[in-house]
């Protein structure tokens, strides 16, 4: 029966969306990549985005700059689907380009939200790619609409374009700085104009953002170091909070739109989102995850366990750490079909479970008769965990003990992860014993927040830990503005608190891996010969 006020088609779409929500895992907003000064800029951007496909699988796009004119190609689906026709890349000739892969949040799946977004103003063109989520987007959008702004999308990314255009400053760089000081939340921005490429990171550095350099000297800016490796670029530096970097034919200029900054890297980048071969602020993601697994084995041991099995692919590093710490065999008990990126979910339990089985299958010969420790990176809704536990038991496992290499995910994220209500979170609604029962495991254990921070081992000596762990402990490193009302009950009960926006300046020297880095006028970094990867020895 159709919902009240909806026709059958609308009701069906709502139901399909809810089913999609019930089975999906955590999803990050997107990955971004940009290069200036390459004749093959669009092709290089395609390769870079391919390395970032894990950060967004709903849509992709590239904008190129050809002699001061911007050209755009974008579409829904995987990067390889959008650019399946080689003519689409060939149409993007020019010496610079920015690109974007996107995960769409609920209700925003249209082509109009696929980035990079492009604006054709009377006096110039501009393209924008954004990774993150603005916490004051609703208020800003209302303010802009009240003054006559007309939005073409439902994405918060478009807001920055309107703010730039509404600025009364005369120079573009000043307009951009003014706009960046109006937005709040998590953001890594790449902007392309006829005359330059601009990169800006939020004052907390929630999202990863790095600068690299091609062998011939051209600069690359992207979400993860793994994308630099794919295109053959040398890592130069992490973009720092509050920085505004300008790249044009004269080189790279490092400036700031604000000096009131802190360091609060999203811990979920290390836990789940980033590729294991990426490095964030000097910490390799694979090694951090191995340390999480080892710490988990110490905090949540499983007596009489026979084998360790990691859930592919993001949990394999943690499983290796758990196995190494216990001396137990690390077995490939689950196989992931690498050719299944997304699954069309239909609203029946049988088909939802079949969707998981299309992605994962158990190796019966490995599992049968064993007491299995199943290592995963997180539990969000628990639906997928339940299906995997069932799968292992059907394969003959004597028992299945689930160990999660992160703390209980029990509070919303507002800085770029698609998880903005507690209703979706199993850990917010149930105790650990209740969660164990729901996923049908023989036992269930999580990593503590303190152990997580120690495992990531960010070499930071400033205020706090340098990490955002709000989803686990309720300590948000900044106000959440438009979202605060949704947390009113949690605020009253003392489960949630917020730090004010920073009033002091974080300095890169507060991170040991950056302490011996000398930033030259051209933005490059020169390591001191008496250090090992930038760390004093």
TrEMBL record:
Enzyme Commission number(s) from the entry: 2.4.2.14
All residue ranges annotated as the Glutamine amidotransferase type-2 domain in the record: 30-250
GO molecular function, one term: magnesium ion binding
Listed cofactors: Mg(2+)
Keywords assigned by UniProt, alphabetized: Glutamine amidotransferase, Glycosyltransferase, Magnesium, Metal-binding, Purine biosynthesis, Transferase
Biological or metabolic pathway of the protein: Purine metabolism; IMP biosynthesis via de novo pathway; N(1)-(5-phospho-D-ribosyl)glycinamide from 5-phospho-alpha-D-ribose 1-diphosphate: step 1/2
Any single biological process term in GO: 'de novo' IMP biosynthetic process
UniProt protein name: Amidophosphoribosyltransferase
Species, as recorded: Leuconostoc carnosum (strain JB16)
